[in-house]
Amino acid sequence: MKDDAEHPLRYALVNELHARPSPRLEAPCTAVFIAIKEPRDAANRDRASDVAHLAELCLRHGAPSPDPEAGHYAAHLGRHKLRWESHTEFVTYTAFARGLPTRPFDPSVGEIFPGEWQRRAPGKRVAAVMIHVDVLPDDPVEIQPRLERWFAADSLASAWVLDESAVVAGDFRLDPAGWMRFAVFVRPGTGSGRIGRIVQRLLDLETYRSMSMLGLNRARELSEQLNALDPQISDIVESMADDSRPAEALLHDLLSVSTRLESAAARHSFRFGATAAYEAIVMDRVAALRETRFRGGQMLTEFMARRYAPAMRTVRSAERRLSTLLDRTERAGELLRTRVDVWRGAQNQEIMERMDRRADLQLRLQHTVEGLSVVAISYYAVGLLGYALYPLAHALDLDKAVLIAGLTPLAVLAVWFGMRRIRARLHADH
Predict the structure, then answer these.
(1) Pick from 156, 183, 209: which residue ends a domain?
(2) Confidence class of residue 85 from pLDDT cuts 50, 70 and 90?
(3) What is the pLDDT of residue 213?
């Protein structure tokens, strides 16, 4: 019965903690592992195609088909025990088999994952690991000749792990068949859970190392792009002090550079974020092995510090450089916008001054027109009044010229007063 007090995701999230337990292995045994990732936008891939590809492998060996919504799966494929897991960007296949092949690291062991089946996968192989797990002799020195035969001496890393319960060794090189090899020699009596954890940590180390190294290629591509954009930004900033170059033209150039930088940031941000997360997992897996030196050899920690850490620093450097250039373009844009605003303010001030002069001229012209209008209206008013009052002047025996002379100042004053009243009323309305 469903309990309304429970969060709907509580049971699913608790079960997720136990979804991918470490395998339990007995020495001697062999582990074969591959990780497959779509080259582009793997985080948004069609996960149903991953399950369909897994189902094809199960069908070959007569194993039960996986749930279409499965995120992990386990089954027996003949003498192998298969573990399949779906991750954010990739899927992993691991096959464990008891015993060891006649020839160590025999490529035929990897045929549990047929080549033609891998070629039909919805993605490409980014990691392929073969781990040889054997019992440690009473005298650990006896394994040294085998390590020298199996691995390249210049990059061999070997160490005691987990309180000297086992020796792990590898050279992080690909053999002719494309497999990366690791050897694990466990002391007699070591528990199956501990052996499984050692193997799982080595698989995780190589998987996430491979995934994190994808960011290195992106960093190199980005560095080439930034090498081209950096001088352009510097030229724009230096040109800001040159008044002969229009600020709006510089702002247009800066907008073009800024757009390309923002596009690069959007294109690379996920990969750089994923690289940082994968790097943290790699270093966590190395630390979890709790290494101590074996016969004075190079440990995994030292190998990572010398070979892996510089690559990760390159990625972080490219990411920081991109962020720095984005900040520079933002600051340059603010300065250019300020310059444009000042220039436009000066233009607006000049326009306002011109408008003031034009308004003053218009006012003077208006006063002139009003004066002329008073004269013209008065002229016609005197004429009309003269005609209207001429009979009265004739009866009073007044000369017409005297009549006109008397009417003229009266008409002018009346018209002038009327014009002032009209203008005052217009101003009051506004």
Answers:
(1) 209
(2) very high
(3) 95
370 alpha carbon, distance to own chain's centre = 71
Q: In whole angstroms, what is the distance from residue 7 CA to residue 30 CA? A: 42
Integer Cα distance of 184 and 31 in angstroms: 11
Q: Distance between CA 337 and CA 328 in Å, rounded?
A: 14
Parallel, antiparallel or unpaired: strands 72-77 and 124-135: unpaired
Q: 30 and 161, same structural domain?
A: yes
Tokens 């009265």 identify what position? Answer: 392
pLDDT exceeds cutoff 50 at 1: no
d(CA 9, CA 382): 102
pLDDT of residue 425: 74
Q: Can you read off the two tokens belonging to residue 309?
A: 């850490």
Owner of token pair 């497999």:
179
User: In 3D, which of 413, 414, 265 has the Cα closest to residue 326?
Assistant: 265
Q: Higher model confidence: residue 366 or residue 356?
A: 356
The single residue listed with the structure tokens 């015993």 is: 99
Displacement of CA 90 from its chain's centroid (Å):
20
Instruction: Give the pTM.
Output: 0.77
Q: Quick one: pLDDT at residue 117? A: 96
- pLDDT for 427 equals 63
Q: Is 414 exposed, middle or buried, given 0-12, 13-18 or 19+ CB atoms closer than 10 A?
A: middle
Q: What is the full DSSP assignment across 109-121? A: GGGGS-HHHHHTS
Say whether pLDDT at 359 is over 60. Answer: yes
pLDDT in the model for residue 6: 79
Strand order of the β-sheet with 80-86 is: 72-77, 80-86, 90-98, 29-37, 124-135, 180-186, 166-174, 157-161, 292-293
Mean pLDDT on 198-225: 95
In this structure, are residues 416 and 382 in contact, taking their beta carbons and an 8 Å threshold?
no
Domain that holds residue 234: 213-350
The percentage of the chain sitting over the pLDDT mark of 70, rounded to a whole number, equals: 93
Nearest of 405, 399, 404 to residue 388 by alpha carbon: 404
The answer to whether residues 198 and 217 belong to one domain is: no
- Which of 166, 161, 163, 105 has the alpha carbon at shortest distance from 140? 166
Residues 338 and 375 placed together within one structural domain of the fold: no
Residues 299 and 409 in one domain: no
Residue 64 has pLDDT above 90, yes or no: yes
235 shares a domain with 377: no
